[in-house]
């Protein structure tokens, strides 16, 4: 037995997901099959690749060496595969992207950078002017891909899941609700809720949390920028419902407090929307794959789409 690409992919997924279960899901294997593969590789190398029972999973020096090899080799493999696809199909085209998710730039811009290296012939651009009318612009052909958490039933469009994320309520550190693990809808009755400037029907905190319970917050105010919303919260101007990954840095610095919305949390899915006639174009599929990989690498607290 010798080192194979599947071994490098396995060690990379172990590092990125932090668990056997997550790596098995990403590799489309059963946990038992993955365990057997790792055990055979460890027998070949004569040493363990990760520390058993560590949470999250922690690689040994041998595992770290294989990880370094994987991070060097696998991107080259992907680039070679992309080159071969282009040679076979003459791939090139336009990929203009709009974002309805107002807090996506932390992972989307690195994903675009990685994609440009693999697909240099594609005309790639981010169209910020269509953020508040992205899906109509997609249907009309003005843009080619929309990052959204609000898919529609339009038969002309298709939506590929990117990843799951939890929406958390963020509040000032000294807020009366701070310290609670989760909140009920009634807890927001006396609060000013800071939201993005879109219809309530597109905001999960209203559609899936407050409105089913018949609860209305004391007031609302809007901001287009997640960073500004966090600053307003810190200054005691209200509370906000934001994706958990947006809050990782200020939470780690002790600037804010957060709580889940409901005992099991309010979870949402982010999608890449495309026109149905375009959904199998290789350069579109390639971008969606790059977006998934990058998001799982750089964002805290998200779950792969499966």
Radius of gyration: 22 Å
**What is the makeup of the main sheet?**
11 strands, mixed
CATH architecture of the largest domain: 3-Layer(aba) Sandwich
Cα separation of the termini: 30 Å
Indicate the proportion of strand residues.
Answer: 15-25%
State the name of the first-level CATH class of the largest domain. Answer: Alpha Beta
Helix content: 40-55%
Helix and strand pattern: HHHEEHEHEHEEEEHEHEHEEHE
CATH topology category name of the largest domain: D-Maltodextrin-Binding Protein, domain 2
> What oligomerization state is this entry in?
single chain
Assign an overall shape: globular
Task: Let me know the number of strands.
Answer: 13
| DSSP helical segment count | 10
Q: What does this protein structure show overall?
A:
With about 300 residues, this protein is an alpha/beta fold. The chain contains ten helices and 13 strands. The strands form two sheets. Strands 3, 4, 5, 6, 7, 8, 9, 10, 11, 12 and 13 form an eleven-stranded mixed β-sheet that branches. The longest helix is centred in the first third of the chain and has 29 residues, at about 60-90. Belongs to the LysR transcriptional regulatory family. It is found in: Cytoplasm. Keywords: Activator, Amino-acid biosynthesis, Cytoplasm, DNA-binding, Methionine biosynthesis, Repressor, Transcription, Transcription regulation. InterPro entries: LysR_HTH_N, LysR_subst-bd, MetR_PBP2, WH-like_DNA-bd_sf, WH_DNA-bd_sf.
């Amino acid at each position: 037995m010798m080192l194979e690409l599947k071994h490098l992919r396995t060690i990379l997924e172990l590092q990125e997901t932090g668990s056997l279960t997550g790596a098995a899901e990403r590799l489309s294997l059963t946990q038992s099959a993955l365990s057997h593969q790792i055990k055979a590789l460890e027998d070949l190398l004569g040493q363990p690749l990760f520390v058993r029972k560590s949470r999250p999973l922690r690689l040994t020096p041998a595992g770290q060496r294989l990880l370094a090899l994987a991070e060097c080799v696998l991107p080259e493999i992907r680039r070679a595969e992309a080159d071969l696809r282009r040679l076979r199909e003459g791939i090139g085209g336009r990929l203009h992207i709009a974002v309805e998710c107002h807090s996506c730039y932390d992972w989307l811009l690195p994903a675009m950078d990685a994609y440009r290296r693999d697909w240099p012939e594609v005309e790639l651009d981010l169209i910020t002017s269509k953020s508040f009318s992205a899906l109509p612009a997609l249907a009309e052909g003005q843009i080619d891909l929309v990052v959204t958490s609000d898919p529609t039933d339009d038969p002309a469009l298709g939506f590929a899941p990117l990843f799951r994320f939890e929406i958390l309520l963020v509040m000032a550190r000294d807020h009366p609700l701070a310290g609670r693990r989760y909140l009920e809808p009634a807890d927001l009755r006396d609060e000013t809720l800071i939201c993005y400037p879109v219809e309530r029907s597109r905001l999960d905190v209203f559609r899936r949390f407050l409105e089913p319970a018949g609860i209305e917050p004391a007031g609302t105010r809007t901001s287009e920028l997640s960073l500004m919303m966090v600053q307003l919260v810190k200054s005691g101007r209200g509370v906000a419902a934001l994706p958990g990954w947006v809050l990782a840095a200020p939470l780690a610095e002790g600037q804010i407090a957060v709580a889940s919305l409901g005992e099991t949390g309010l979870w949402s899915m982010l999608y890449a929307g495309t026109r149905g006639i375009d959904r199998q174009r290789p350069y579109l599929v390639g971008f969606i794959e790059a977006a998934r990989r990058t998001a799982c690498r750089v964002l805290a607290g998200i779950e792969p789409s499966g």
